[in-house]
Design goal:
- This protein is 44% helix and 22% strand.
- The chain is an alpha+beta fold.
- The protein is elongated and about 60 Å long.
Length: 89
């Protein structure tokens, strides 16, 4: 195999680095039981929970291209369920 062919294979296989942006603060309990399902139903593909150093609070982190979609999904949920507790702030 020539050097040029091996370089092309490496370039194709290398994964794209994800840029995470912290969007809201929340607790792990609310993320695990509700927020994760809300974002999945809203077709947000890349999100995660980043835990703080102390306690079970943390930040909801979303991939940079999907920030607007995540904010829209969470805002729609808040307007439809006005009687529910604030799960993110």
């Amino acid at each position: 195999m020539t050097k040029k062919k091996s370089e092309k294979q490496v370039a194709i296989v290398a994964p794209k680095k994800t840029e995470w942006v912290n969007v809201f603060k929340t607790t792990y309990h609310r993320y695990r039981h509700w927020i994760r399902f809300i974002l999945t139903e809203g077709k947000v593909n890349k999100f995660r929970f980043v835990k703080d150093e102390i306690g079970y609070t943390g930040k909801l982190s979303v991939d940079k291209p999907e920030i607007d979609k995540a904010k829209k999904v969470l805002a729609d949920y808040k307007t439809k369920n006005t009687g529910s507790v604030d799960m993110w702030w």
